Amino acid sequence: MCLCLAARGEDEVFFRWNPPDGLVRQERLISHRRAERPDAGGHVDRKETLTEVAYHSQPTGYVYAATQVAYQAARDGTPTFDLRLALFNQVPLQYHLDMVGRLREIDGLAALVVRARSMQPDDPRVPLVVREENYRRERREAWDQRYGRMVGKRGKLGDSWRVSDEYLLPGDRRLVFHITTKLVEKLRCADHDCVRLEFFYHSTPEPRSATWEIPFIPPTQVKESEITGWGERILDPSTMLIYLEREVFVIRFKPGELGPQPVVVEERVECSFSTGGRGER
Fold first, then answer.
1. Across residues 179-207, what is the average pLDDT?
2. CA distance 105 to 211
3. pLDDT digits over 79-130, tens only?
4. pTM score
5. What does the pLDDT average to over 195-219?
6. Cβ(196)–Cβ(234) below 8 Å
7. Structural domain boundaries of the chain?
8. What is the 3-class SS of 55-89, one letter each residue?
9. Residues 178 and 202 sit within 8 Å (Cβ to Cβ)
10. Per the omega criterion (within 30 degrees of 0), is the bond before 215 cis?
């Protein structure tokens, strides 16, 4: 990892996991995914989830408890059923952290495996890919992207961090991402001293065979594709509480992967937060 320092004299920022004990928040995530085929037009999928998150302190660290409590899905304005959103709905997950805020373990994944297999009992691919270790790896990678890379770091305005991450795909294949995160500015949000981070990433285009969104759509063997993305995150570095996230990513499939024509998938995601929930105490 490379830390590129800005000019001296700026106030230092320390990213520390220290949310108030017992705090309950609601996280609303809305995504719009547009898929374009030159030979067949395109469509827009809209998805919205509401997740209740509770923060707890323990003698050995912290617990981040998250439960998706509601969801909606639509294609071109028509309501649709989304198997993945239905799978995660009302399944509580507990992320156990150490005293610094590093992820140690995730509880609740076994229930996801049981539900996924019961929802698709006749699909022979499900036992091969629906495994607790696969969900654990997926959740850990998502956690590191959102929190894990920044917890415990110090920086100044203008500093940037560059890192290359490898993501495991089914069949022990790997996808390499190059990610840059920049500390852009300080600002006030919800009566807190916050900072804005910008992040950019792209995959290394190279021959590979990947299966996308197993087991929720029929597998497509992808020989080569390219993923680029950018976004911003506003958070309080003294607690690691996020107040706003925006992200755009684009996947470009080359001819021959999904058909004779190139396919472009663009997704825009926005996540907002509010205090309170059913479990507030």
1. 87
2. 26
3. 999 988 999 999 999 999 999 999 999 999 999 999 988 888 788 777 777 8
4. 0.83
5. 60
6. yes
7. 2-275
8. EEEECCEEEEEEEEEEEEEEECCEECCCHHHHHHE
9. yes
10. yes
Q: How far is CA 219 from CA 46, 106, 216, 222, 224, in A?
A: 22, 27, 9, 9, 15
Dihedrals φ, ψ of 232, to 5°?
-145, 155
Distance of alpha carbon 72 from alpha carbon 82, whole angstroms = 8
Q: In whole angstroms, what is the distance from residue 12 CA to residue 89 CA?
A: 40
Angstrom distance (rounded) from CA 137 to CA 134: 5
The mean pLDDT value for 244-258 works out to: 80
Identify any residues that bridge with 72 across adjacent strands, giving them in sequence order: 48
What the block records as the tokens of 161 is 């961090």
Kindly give, in sequence order, each residue whose CB lies less than 8 Å from that of residue 86, ignoring residues fewer than 6 positions away: 71, 119
Spatial contact of 181 and 199, defined as CB atoms under 8 Å apart: yes
Residue 92 identity: P
Phi, psi of 142 (to 5 degrees): -65, -40
The topology under which CATH files domain 2-275 is Lipovitellin-phosvitin complex; beta-sheet shell regions (2.30.230)
DSSP per-residue string spanning 98-151: -TT--EEEEESHHHHHHHHHHHSTT-TTHHHH--HHHHHHHHHHHHIIIIITTT
**DSSP states along 222-271:** ES-EEEEEEEEEEEETTTTEEEEEEEEEEEEEPTTTSSSS-EEEEEEEEE
